[in-house]
Hints:
This protein is α/β, with parallel strands linked by helices. It is 48% helix and 16% strand. The protein has nine helices and seven strands. The protein is globular and about 50 Å long. Nicotinamide-adenine-dinucleotide is lined by residues 8-9, 11-15, 33-35, 38, 58-61, 86-89, 110, 114, 137, 139, 182, 184-185, 187, 189-190.
Amino acid sequence: xxxxxxxxxxxxxxGGAVARRLAVGGMSVIVADYDHGAAxxxxxxxxxxxxxxxxxSVDVTQAREVKALVTDxxxxxxxxxxxxxxxxxxxxxKRIEEFTWAEWRxxxxxxxxxxxxxxxxxxxxxxxxxxxxxxxxxSNYGVTGSALRVPYSAAxxxxxAFTRSLALELAPDGILVNTVxxxxxxxxxxxxxxxxxxxxxxxxxxxxxxxxGQPEDIAELFYFLTTPESAAxxxxxxxxxxxxx
Length: 245
Ligand SMILES: NC(=O)c1ccc[n+]([C@@H]2O[C@H](COP(=O)([O-])OP(=O)(O)OC[C@H]3O[C@@H](n4cnc5c(N)ncnc54)[C@H](O)[C@@H]3O)[C@@H](O)[C@H]2O)c1
């Protein structure tokens, strides 16, 4: 039977790489994103490569949209084996006194509330299946903190604690919950803001391995956490940052 993976933020740099990797691993992937064009582009690449993929629209901060998405996937595909919550972002770099309440809410909502809403809808289905993998996305900043990114760091730290708690709650049903924490990763959106050379100069002295991550580096970690080889791992946070943390 084909395994089904639902990937939020699947139209983005890391989400797209994860979707491609899981599809190569033989899963049917649902690429869910509020940027439908980006999700369709990722699905097109997967399908042209012989994989199975479908693009669906969702805003993960909207409970009704999340419920409709999960209900639709469950009705048509019958199961969800992997939920990868990758939709997120830091959106702003500014001092705390410059943050508005709306900006704080936006950052917390996309990263933390979105993860909660998706897990709340998918967990009962996985409980009925008596199996499932939930993969959340944090950041090195969720552990080290980051000046000028107070809400983002708080949201990502929250995701790490959320993961530990949900893993304990769902373990009796055979559902594994883990977090992947990427370090600086060269996604198209990041590379729009900075030249390759400027980025190299900024990060090379700080990263022991001497290079920033590629979306494919992060995707391999996500993939591993969906395999039978990782069946004894739950409640953990895995960093991929070249030794930065
Ligand atoms: N790129 C990095 O250096 C880096 C480092 C650490 C952590 N991360 C985390 O990795 C994840 C992916 O980041 P990325 O670099 O690929 O970013 P990205 O901007 O390329 O991808 C994010 C995707 O999420 C989607 N999205 C945003 N808000 C959404 C919403 N409300 N509902 C549905 N979809 C939504 C966007 O449309 C986009 O396709 C994020 O959680 C980010 O915080 C990235």
